[in-house]
Amino acid sequence: MENRILIIADELFGENGESAARFSELLLCKQPTRPLQFVINAPLPYSLASLSEKIAFDIMGKQAKHIILGVGLKDIAHGKNPDILFESLKNITSILLSKTSSIIYIVTIPLETLPESPSAICHWNTLLKGLAADRLKVLDFAEAAETFKEQQLERGKFARTLYGETGKATSTCQTLLSLFLLDSFLA
What we know:
With about 190 residues, the protein is an alpha/beta fold. It has one domain (about 5-185): Rossmann fold (3-Layer(aba) Sandwich). The chain is about 45% helix and about 15% strand. It has helices spanning about 20-30, 50-55, 55-60, 75, 80-100, 120-130, 140-155, 170-185; strands at about 5-10, 35-40, 65-70, 105, 135-140. It has a five-stranded parallel β-sheet, with helices on both faces. α6 links the parallel β4 and β5. The longest helix is centred in the middle third of the chain and has 18 residues, at about 80-100. The two termini are about 20 Å apart.
């Protein structure tokens, strides 16, 4: 459907998909007369590999014009190899590009989200950036979060953080991701 937006995300979008919900509300507030329908599957209850098995029903069956994928964090946090995960994601995007007319957006993961595995997250983001194509957009939230962090450090002791010590996203982080998605989507 031309006006349907499907969001599939793991904990990158919040423990309860808060960033996805905020993004949908912000877009509706920004464009109140635009006919929109959201399908939000966040947080994703299963692994990225399982998503490739459910692609026909969970993704293609929704017939969305826009598909936003915020995946990889959950699997990497559980010790999965980013290269193997990337093969699953490549398979999913390949099927979607060949069998739908959807525009696909993939969101990178900030390093601070998983402080115990920054090299795995960095590698994952590098792999994602290599996927960019005509109908496949890579949204670099990792860079936006880093810019925010640098700007906040200039404020000194009154700075806001995006992540707690364990990598859990703060409300500020969820709002920043929502605004980032809105700006990316409207661009």
